[in-house]
Amino acid sequence: MKKLLLVLMIMLMALSFTVACDGDNGGSSSDKLKVALILPGKKDDLSFNQSMYEGMMNYLDANEDKMELKVTENVYEVSDIEPALLDFADQGYDVIIGHGFQFMEPLVKVAKQYPDTHFVLGTGYKFEKNSAIYDVSLDDGGYQMGVIAGLATQTNKVGVIGGADVSEIYRGHEGFKLGAKSVNPNIQIQEVYTGDWNDTAGAKEAAVGMYDSGVDVIWHSGDGIGLGVVQAAKEKDKYVLGNVADQLKLAEKNVLSGVVYQWKAVLENIFDDIDSGEFLKLADEERFYWITAENEGLNYSKINDSKGWLTSDDLTKIESSWKDLKAGKIDFSVIKEPTK
User: Fold this and answer.
1) Which spans in 247-311 are helix H?
2) Is 195 in contact with 221 (CB distance < 8 Å)?
3) The predicted structure's pLDDT at residue 310
4) In 190-335, which residue ranges form alpha helices assigned H by DSSP?
5) pLDDT tens for residues 50-101?
6) With pLDDT > 90 as the criterion, what percentage of the chain qualifies?
7) Distance from chain centroid for Cα 196
8) What residue ranges in the chain does DSSP mark as E strands?
9) How far apart are CA 35 and CA 288, in angstroms?
10) Phi/psi zone of residue 222: left (φ > 0), alpha (ψ -120 to 50 degrees), beta?
């Protein structure tokens, strides 16, 4: 009898562990909000995917009595996105999050078929009555990176490398140019879009070309391309500015700073609106959730000037620029949205 009781206890402990660990959540209950997060890349990419994964996990830790979470990684190709969305909708998930611009067309299509499900899109511009968009004012972050690059450069040549020329990436690049010229009116700025956020090799090649032409500081706008630019900076022993997460550990002598995203603010707003029932009542423009310098959804990582290119006066200007951004004093009206 004692042996039988021991076996039953072990089986119960194993079952409890399985339930607690399933889907990166703290357990499941029929009265909890079922949330699915679909990432286009890996949750530990030190970039766009990791920032949202960590934001969701932080939110879950504070609200695990109210929600359960399932995370799916590496759903990058558009042809794979619609089946993934349909699968979660068919399973009865309450909230489905597609973390990336490429989710836009499939997400609005599937949202029409499941009017009682809440769909959330990471960057984009198309809505359904049961969907919302969260986005980043990357013109804020880009501007700050431009200020840093414009002050740090020793050759008066800087560069910016992005994935696709869309939405927040475009705004970030234009903000970068604006910031660099605000502190260095005669600066030369090179720009490349690889056309693919995962094109690590193409981004590295573009960065090497820039460095070889005299550019000594490059800002990249995230994902796999960022890894390529950091690799090039390390090989050429130049500076790189990161995006989305602090990438210092990738190249401790070459990562000068970078934009850091904190999605917590928008996640709290989105789930508050869902919980209260306001989500489905809001107008489209009210279901657009932003992280900005002002709401501290955006920040920048500590300056790591291993080469000693920045003076104390430069550092003061960098701090002053950030204060102006947080106070909403920078005029971005000259930046126009790209043609959609």
Assistant:
1) 264-276
2) no
3) 98
4) 200-212, 224-236, 264-276, 312-326
5) 999 999 999 999 999 999 999 999 999 999 999 999 999 999 999 999 999 9
6) 78
7) 15
8) 33-38, 67-72, 95-98, 118-122, 131-136, 157-162, 188-193, 217-220, 239-242, 255-261, 288-291, 298-300
9) 19
10) left
* pTM for the model: 0.83
Distance CA 331, CA 325 (A): 9
Whole-angstrom CA distances from 328 to 112, 113, 260, 322, 339 are 37, 40, 18, 10, 25
Closest among 127, 134, 135 to 280, alpha carbons compared: 127
Beta bridge mates, 68: 34
pLDDT > 70 in the chain, percent: 90
109-162: pLDDT as tens digits = 999 999 999 999 999 899 899 999 999 999 999 999 999 999 999 999 999 999
Domains recognised in the chain with CATH numbers: 16-136 (3.40.50.2300), 138-260+298-326 (3.40.50.2300)
CA distance 41 to 98: 11
- The predicted pLDDT at position 184 comes to 97
Integer Cα distance of 171 and 140 in angstroms: 9
Q: Determine the Cα–Cα distance for residues 288 and 122; give it in Å rounded to an integer.
A: 10
Cα–Cα dist 285/235, whole Å: 45
